[in-house]
């Protein structure tokens, strides 16, 4: 979990709390859609501004020692306001050995798609109509309810099939079509 945070903090700009939460959600739900397993093990809830990894949210105001040793929050000026961004501590580096090739592919795809994106531009992706968050949120009726990972899998139970005809290439990573998580790495939101 901490290593995924390190990866996104190192490989995306403007990585504040909301953007990080959205990236982790997309990582977990895309991976679950493909494999039936999450990457971080986080449980997510449907909050007004999107999916929230509950355990990380609880730790956000006062980082535990392991997270505090890896990252810190730093104010950075973005246009005319100060943004609280996640920054990796000096001497800390991402350890790819903790991830499978599939997990690395998804993380790379997400970081490339949203590298310079501000969190508000990601709302259309994480709040996609009939996506996992939307199915739980239901115009606020499901506020703070858990978002089951099973909602990442299409109703027919199928898993994505990646063939040369329905995939796109982002540098060396081949990624598939738009999923029920709402992400379309071929045409990222900007």
Description:
Helix content is 34%, strand content 16%. The protein has helices spanning 2-11, 17-35, 54-60, 65-70, 101-113, 123-126, 132-137, and strands at 44-47, 50-53, 71-78, 81-88, 168-170, 173-175. It has 190 residues and is an alpha+beta fold. It is built from seven helices and six strands, in the order H-H-E-E-H-H-E-E-H-H-H-E-E. The radius of gyration is 16 Å and the shape is globular. A hairpin with a 2-residue loop joins strand 5 (168-170) and strand 6 (173-175). The chain starts with a helix and ends in a 15-residue tail after the last strand. Strands 1-2 form a two-stranded antiparallel sheet. The protein has a two-stranded antiparallel ribbon with strand order 3-4.
Keywords for this entry:
190 residues; alpha+beta; two-stranded antiparallel ribbon
């Amino acid at each position: 979990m901490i290593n995924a945070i390190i990866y996104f903090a190192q490989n995306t700009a403007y990585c504040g709390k909301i953007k990080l939460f959205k990236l982790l959600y997309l990582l977990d739900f895309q991976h679950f859609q493909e494999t039936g397993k999450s990457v971080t093990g986080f449980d997510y809830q449907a909050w007004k501004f999107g999916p929230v990894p509950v355990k990380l949210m609880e730790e956000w105001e006062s980082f535990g020692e392991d997270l505090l040793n890896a990252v810190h929050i730093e104010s950075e000026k973005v246009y005319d306001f100060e943004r609280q961004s996640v920054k990796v501590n000096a001497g800390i580096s991402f350890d790819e050995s903790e991830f499978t090739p599939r997990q690395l592919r998804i993380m790379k795809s997400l970081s490339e798609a949203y590298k310079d994106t501000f969190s508000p531009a990601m709302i259309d992706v994480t709040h996609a109509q009939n996506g996992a968050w939307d199915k739980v949120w239901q115009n606020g009726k499901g506020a703070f309810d858990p978002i089951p990972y099973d909602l990442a899998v299409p109703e027919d139970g199928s898993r994505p099939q990646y063939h040369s005809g329905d995939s796109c290439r982002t540098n060396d990573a081949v990624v598939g079509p738009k999923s029920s998580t709402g992400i379309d790495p071929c045409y990222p939101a900007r």
